[in-house]
Amino acid sequence: MPARTTIAHRVFVTRPIAEAAIRRLAESARVDLWDDDAPPPPADLAEHLRPCDAVLAMVSDRFDAATIAGAPRLGVISNLAVGVDNIDLAAATRAHVAVGHTPGVLAETTADLAFALMMAVARRVAEADRFVRAGRWRMWTPRLMLGRDVWGATLGIVGWGAIGQAVARRASGFGMRVIYASRETPMAGRRARASATPARAATNASAAGAERVALAQLFAESDFISLNLPLTAETRGMIGRTQIAAMKRGAILVNTARGAIVDQSALERALRTGHLGGAGLDVTATEPIDPRDPILELPNVVITPHIGSASHATRLKMAELAVDNILDVFAGRIPRRCANPAVKLRVARRK
Ligand code: DGY
Question: Ligand 1 — pocket residues by CB below 6 A?
Answer without folding.
Answer: 59, 81-83, 106, 308-309
